[in-house]
Amino acid sequence: MFSGIVEELGILKACGERGLTISASLVLADLEIKDSIAVDGTCLTVTEMGPDWFYVDTMPETLRRTRLGSLKPGDKVNLERSLPNQGRIGGHMVQGHIEATAPILNVAQDGMALQVEVALPSELRSYIIPKGFIALNGVSLTIIDVLADHFTFALIPYTQEHTNLGEARPGMLLNIESDIIGRYVVQHLQHYVGQEAAIRQ
User: Fold this and answer.
1) Quick one: signal sequence residues (predicted)?
2) How far is CA 97 from CA 42, 44, 52, 62, 112, in A?
3) N or C: which end of the chain has fewer CB within 10 A?
């Protein structure tokens, strides 16, 4: 499990159909082969590592479901190690299971923050609510507003400086993971309503 609090910006050294090589420093401190790590919010397994890099396997489903398949060497990726048992959850519960990708539609300065507008995937509409949690490229964020076809969030200067969301621009693709608690609630209610309808028939 992750918290959506990015620890480090890694640099993609090499990418292929079977995996990614990423240069890093901070996250390597206690990282071991077989450990989970979130790369732009995608939970992956470390299978090789060196003094300033690590390698993760990427299966076809991962490349289809996330933005990782569109990255190229030199791109920055958000990195977060899995939470230790005694760790604080500074963001929210993030699984690292990407549900969809969506492009940024607009970026505008709003005081010291950047307000960002993102296309809303129709399959996630039930799970994305104003003032709710969302993980974008693995970053825990609060949704500002939700409209018919898009939602908005804001980036404080710290997040702009310490994650790849600081490069936000129209057309940039984002990995999306909605709030797991919200997903469970919606699924439970849909099941309950379906059972009630069946009983009435």
Assistant:
1) none
2) 6, 10, 26, 9, 31
3) C
Structure tokens at 54: 């690590």
% of the chain with per-residue pLDDT over 70: 95
Q: Which DSSP symbol is given to 128?
A: -
The SS3 call for residue 44 is strand
Are 79 and 7 within 8 A, CB to CB?
Answer: yes
What CA–CA distance (Å, rounded) separates 14 from 71?
A: 10
What is the DSSP code (8-state) at residue 193? H
pLDDT, tens only, 2-32:
999 999 999 999 998 889 999 999 999 999 9
Sign of the four-CA dihedral 145, 92, 66, 23: positive
Alpha-carbon distances, residue 5 vs 47, 72, 124 (angstroms): 23, 24, 22
pLDDT tens for 49-91 read: 999 999 999 999 999 999 999 999 999 999 999 988 777 677 8
57: left (phi over 0), alpha (psi -120 to 50) or beta: beta
What amino acid occupies position 92?
H
Mean pLDDT rounded to a whole number for the chain:
92
What domains lie within the chain, and their CATH numbers?
8-81 (2.40.30.20), 100-186 (2.40.30.20)
Residue 198, burial from CB neighbour count under 10 angstroms (0-12, 13-18, 19+): exposed
Tokens of 188: 């439970």
